[in-house]
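Forum > Structural Biology > Help requests

Title: Can anyone predict the 3D structure of Beta-lactamase hydrolase-like protein?

Hi all, first post here. I have the sequence for Beta-lactamase hydrolase-like protein but no way to get a structure on my laptop. I'd be grateful if someone could post the structure tokens.
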Amino acid sequence: MMTPLLLLLAALSDPGGVSPGTDIALNPARPTRETAIRETAMFRKIDDSISVSPQISPDQVAEAAAQGFTMIINNRPDDEQPGQPSGAEIEAAAKAAGLQYRAIPIGHSGFSEPQVKAMAAALADANGPALAFCRSGTRSTFAWALARGAAGDTAEGIAAKAAAAGYDIAPIRAFLPN
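Reply #1:
Sure, ran it for you. Structure tokens for Beta-lactamase hydrolase-like protein below:
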């Protein structure tokens, strides 16, 4: 049985409006997912320890390394959408670029305590700034926010950092300390 937190986060984990359990079909009239990734990926700095991004491609891992990131955190499950690069492809690119890599997939079913703890551990283990990604960057931001909340950061401080990066944590703010 899902807890209220998991139900809330499951409902809100995809700001694009796709409900949990819904098949995501690729519209043939649209560009391929790989093309869209190259055109829209953007690294958004939350603080000195982490930036977040929509889905990245293996080619963008080298760009992340050139920008000084030391770890890639993959918050996107494989096969979430047709055409997305696999976690193995991103991991291989990270290793080739000399970066640490962690896979902490967060699907549309929501967040769990082990995922939040894994995010906190990944950030603690990073040898420098980390780049976390998912489909839009929102789940990565939420995972970071919940990890920082568990570490004692205030909801106000977390919300301000997320907002400065262009993310709204209102859906999870009630689960953060005041």
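The beta strands are 44-47, 50-53, 71-74, 100-103, 130-133. The chain has one domain: 4-9+44-175.
Shout if anything looks off.
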